[in-house]
Amino acid sequence: MKFPSSLVPGASEPFRLEDGRVVEVPKVTPRFSTWTEPPPGDTFGGKAILDFNGRPAFAELVILWSFIEAGWDGVWMDSFGKRHLRGFWPTPLPGELPAEQKNLLERLENHAPGKPTPWDVFCWSPDGVLFAEAKRHGKDSIRPGQIAFLVAGLAAGLPTSSFLMVEWDLA
After folding, report:
1. Beta strand residue intervals within 39-90, DSSP E
2. Can you tell me the distance from the alpha carbon of 14 to that of 24, in angstroms, rounded to the nearest whole number?
3. Could you tell me whether strands 128-136 and 22-28 are parallel, antiparallel, or unpaired per DSSP bridges?
4. How far apart are CA 9 and CA 67, in angstroms?
5. How far apart are CA 75 and CA 55, in angstroms?
6. Can you give the pTM of this predicted structure?
7. What is the 3-class SS of 28-70, one letter each residue?
8. Which residues pair with 77 in a beta bridge?
9. What's the pLDDT tens digit per position in 12-51?
């Protein structure tokens, strides 16, 4: 799978699963630029607004748009609004899941232990799928539902390379 140059994993993040196993998930630690213009609208509860090539974006959209520029397709998995997005301003831009990706996502959500929370960004290409989780360095941490989603993905046969931890900070 071809990763965007700014999101090539150079490390891994250990995840301790409920059964005691530890799995290593690829990890990248990019630095994103802050949006310096006035906020374009809703900040989704105070999320940091970043600059992606002159466009305002949340970290999830920076990740998504980076993968799209690298030839992938995908959506931001807004678990709070229970929707799939490809943009946010001036109004949220819905993203559609093809049947194959929709079936995979439903399988993972329905067979995960506990209450699964899909990872932030779901991308796909002819080479495979990728779920990326955005966490701001020192401010966010993985929640149990996200570990449940990882467990479901691994149980469904996805390799750890189908998951990516993006621990970002401001440039």
Report:
1. 50-52, 55-57, 73-78, 83-87
2. 4
3. unpaired
4. 13
5. 17
6. 0.95
7. ECCEECECCCCCCCCCCCCCCCEEECCEEECHHHHHHHHHHHC
8. 84
9. 999 999 889 999 999 999 999 999 999 898 888 889 999 9
